[in-house]
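Quick one before lunch.
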Amino acid sequence: MELKVFDSFNGVLPPLTPLQEEILRLKKERNAVILAHNYQSAEIQRVADYLGDSLGLSYLAEAEKNADVIVFCGVHFMAEVAKIVNPAKKVLLPVLEAGCSLADSCNAEELAAVKAANPDLYVVAYINCSAAVKALADVICTSGNAKRIVEQVPEDREILFVPDQNLGSWVASQTHRKIKLWPGSCYAHVMFSVEQIEEARAQYPGAPVLAHPECVESVRACADLVCSTEKMVNYCKESPADTFIIVTETNMIHRLRAQVPGKHFVAGPTARCACNECRFMKMNTLERLRDCLRDLSPEIILDENLRQTAHAPLKRMLDWSK
Ligand code: 13P
Ligand code: SF4
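Model of the 1,3-dihydroxyacetonephosphate complex:
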């Protein structure tokens, strides 16, 4: 199996291309801020004002006061969160069709029916879901705070965790809470297998394996650390190891290369290839980002009632994880 290994940029980032310079010029003209998820391409990460995981970017979107426009380089539910927490801003997503298979695995009508049949359930919704699903939840969580959020759910309530069964079962294993799981999963993260990871370990003995909690249980069990993408950055900075096997979406490695000097990163292998890219995250390109800043479109528009209903469980999350 051929593995992809990436070295740190050691502070020397590739020079900007003319298209990247055009984006930065337009960004200034529009008084825009670019927030990019860790799974965006290296070219997009290079022009972003902020990079982060879903949790960090939610706080940044909520706190943004100076810009007129937020351009969210990520997928639809993330840009929707930015609009929910900051309704006065124009929120743009370069490609409106950039969705998420995990978010799609839970639809609001089905969840409403489950809630109607089980009115005592306390619904914890992973942030990877639509605004309509958020509006039905009691509290939202991300992979970065899921354990902390679940621990604060009133003890006398039975928890339904939607839509990711893998993150949900990981949280159950980290807490004493019994959790009912919605049968959803991320098509990209479930592709990792123990066999491939053990092969990678054999090629890089001593390299810690860092896995995202959206991976299946057997993969999580063989990892040295299960955590959100943001925590991976801190771990790689602080660990004495010099090589790491990163079991999540491959573009995560660009952030690590840019911000963790002197180290090496092995893209977590899957059965079919040595890389693993999210097809939705990949829809955003520099060209689409440039067009979106130029045209101030596509824009996230939300019904105000829905926005307010979805805001309550999101606000609860932001308050509970401070
Ligand atoms: P983070 O919670 O680390 O941002 O990862 C979530 C994810 O899978 C984005 O789709
Ligand atoms: Fe959704 Fe998976 Fe892509 Fe994340 S990596 S946006 S969970 S499909």
